[in-house]
Write a structure and sequence with these properties.
The protein is built from 4 helices and 15 strands. It is of the alpha+beta class. The strands form 3 sheets. Strands 1, 3, 4, 5, 6 and 8 form a 6-stranded mixed β-sheet that branches. A hairpin with a 6-residue loop joins strand 9 and strand 10. It is elongated and about 90 Å long. The two termini are 32 Å apart.
């Protein structure tokens, strides 16, 4: 699989890992739009279909999940990237299933008679229900390919604007620790400031960080280099269920100047996640 293009360096996630995209591509259309003269013979045709190819560097398919009645089965990832020892059968607990010639999916033509339905909505629903759908994990910068023994190779690629819009909303995150601090983080979880998708996005839009009021200080740059957050994990035991949960509070990070000081003890070792709250490079930079 090729490297990401130079444009990817403008996004914060480029310092962490190469991106992957989870998509549901448009399924192939049925073979032959005309009314079949011999429907039984037409439906008897079956042929295997291959998604992606690990030996071709221009193919961006990492793997795919099966989809039944609009519901994705996340328990099995069909992929070419498995360990050599599990080429024929995956190990216990490993969700990966090797894509081999023996387990290629099979397609067959179908025909949906329009005169059997009273409305166009019913006809479209019936036709859609027969389509072949997969949830795919791909390289967003590389086309994906589908191979069959009777049709030309079909390729498809995500539009550039969809990739750009998604990456602009993503931030970099690192697992960090243990880190020695002269001042402890809040010892208890604050339920009034939960960390989830909605609260995090709202905080980034209204954020005005004062370095002097930061609850944690680390030797990282600030200013034009980005605004950082420390995601502190807490173990919570709900009273109702009795099962232990892990929740997070987002703490503003101030810049530690690194000068030698004799701060009073005790010092604290913490572990958590360091997240870039705002992009390193903005449109105004």
């Amino acid at each position: 699989m090729p490297h990401a293009p130079p444009d990817y360096a403008a996004y914060a996630t480029s310092i962490v890992v190469k991106p992957l995209a989870l998509i549901v591509p448009s399924p192939p259309e049925p073979l032959g739009p005309a009314v079949p003269t011999e429907p039984e013979r037409l439906l008897s045709y079956k042929f295997p279909i291959k998604i992606g190819d690990a030996n071709r560097p221009f193919d961006g398919v990492v793997g795919f999940f099966d989809n039944t009645d609009g519901v994705t089965d996340w328990k099995k990832l069909h992929t070419y990237f498995t360990s050599p020892s599990s080429a024929a059968a995956t190990e216990e607990g490993d969700p990966r299933v090797s894509i081999l010639l023996e387990n290629f999916d099979t397609l067959c033509p179908f025909y949906t008679a329009p005169d059997e339905y009273t409305s166009s909505a019913d006809y479209v629903a019936a036709k859609t229900g027969k389509l072949w759908v997969k949830t795919m994990l791909i390289d967003p910068y590389t086309p994906l390919h589908v191979y069959t023994p009777i049709l030309p190779i079909t390729s498809s690629q995500l539009p550039a604007w969809t990739v750009q819009r998604a990456l602009e909303k993503m931030s970099a995150i690192f697992r960090l620790g243990p880190v020695l601090l002269t001042k402890d983080v809040p010892p208890r979880y604050d339920p009034s400031d939960p960390l989830d998708t909605e609260t995090w996005m709202e905080k980034q839009r209204e954020r005005t960080t004062d370095p002097g009021t930061a609850k944690i200080r680390l030797p990282i740059g600030g200013g034009k280099k980005g605004i950082w957050e420390w995601l502190q994990p807490y173990r919570i035991e709900p009273e109702e269920s009795g099962t232990e949960e892990r929740k997070y509070n987002a703490l503003d990070v101030g810049e530690e100047d690194g000068r030698l000081r004799l701060d009073p003890g005790p010092y604290t070792l913490v572990e958590g996640f360091l997240q870039l709250g705002r992009p390193v490079v903005t449109r105004d930079a």
